[in-house]
Amino acid sequence: MIPRACGWAADASGGSISKAASPWGVALAAKPGQFDRMSYAIRLAAEDLVARASGALFWPAQELLCVSDLHLGKAERMARRAGALLPPYDSRDTLARLEAEIAVLRPRTVICLGDSFDDGASLAGLEEDARLWLARLMAGRAWVWITGNHDPGPLEIAGTHRAEVQIAGLRFRHIAEAGGAAKAGGAGEISGHYHPKVRLAGKAWRCFLADADRMILPAFGTYTGGLWADDPAFDGLFGPAALAISCGGTVARAMPKPRASTRSR
Known about the structure:
Structural class: alpha/beta
Order of helices and strands: EEHEEEEEHHEHHEEEEEEEEEEE
Helix content: 10-25%
Strand content: 25-35%
Largest sheet: 9 strands, mixed
Number of helices: 5
């Protein structure tokens, strides 16, 4: 069931969001752009969305939180396959940051855009406290798992499992489809998979990539690399007015999406 619309407002102290008398969506429609330091408002296919500094996407009118590429269990998977031994705290850190967003935004629906688990065995490999933590986050809200290339089949976990899902004017899937697919049926497209990143002041930052019809989310998981926003993989997916919205830390900041011709060698 699609959750009802609800009013939201941002706290002037920076990033804390609470119920308010005026619908946040109305404010976004009237004034797109920087909403507060932790939130950048953007309109996608006539829907008002908020890109968060955490790398999560919030849809106020649907009380919906969307994250991509959690890659839970990556350290365990690498150790299991005799790869690099990483500190085994990635899943806990990812869940802690997800819990923080849920506590602030109080969504009725959460959509995970695929590659939520690093492989098909990663769910079983999660420590019991992490599994219980995830169960607590899921309790009392609709939770949708979109299948990804790392977790291609339904897993033994509660929630709804889908290859893609459409809610109102937006379609959610793991990998963006080139060409006019984003506009099929008049729907905008929200996806993940690529882990986009952008360079600012000599440092790499995770980022959203978006134009009027399509958005690609950054990876939310702790142990995740990234693909530069000017990589040829993004050619043909975005129009010339596309934005890169950097995230990480406490600021969501928009800039024109770098083009392939500006790629640093």
